[in-house]
Design goal:
This protein is mainly α. It has a domain of 63 residues. It contains 3 helices and no strands.
């Protein structure tokens, strides 16, 4: 009797959907800043070569400055959280 259920169990097990894959990790803000620096330089070179408009240069620089601000905010948040952790663990932080 036990062997009669084995094909059914194997069939049900094979019908399960695969486990969902985790999303790929987001690039770090520092990597984004490095990439946007290169894009801004390239846009300026294209502008100076006459193959791009100044609007493209401004847009590339805007994206770069936005990413730099995001990196600064991320570093600030990390430092703030580390200070809070240090204080919570009794680190003797004086105000």
């Amino acid at each position: 009797m036990k062997h009669a259920f084995l094909p059914i169990i194997l069939l049900v097990a094979s019908c399960r959907p695969p486990a969902p894959q985790p999303p790929p990790p987001a690039p770090s803000p520092q990597v984004s800043v490095v990439e946007t620096v290169e894009r801004a330089k390239l846009a300026r070179q294209h502008f100076e070569g006459g193959t791009a408009s100044f609007l493209e240069v401004l847009d590339a620089e805007r994206v770069h400055l936005t990413n730099e601000a995001s990196l600064a905010e991320s570093r600030k948040a990390t430092a703030t959280h580390l200070i809070r952790l240090f204080k919570a663990l009794g680190g003797g932080w004086n105000n």
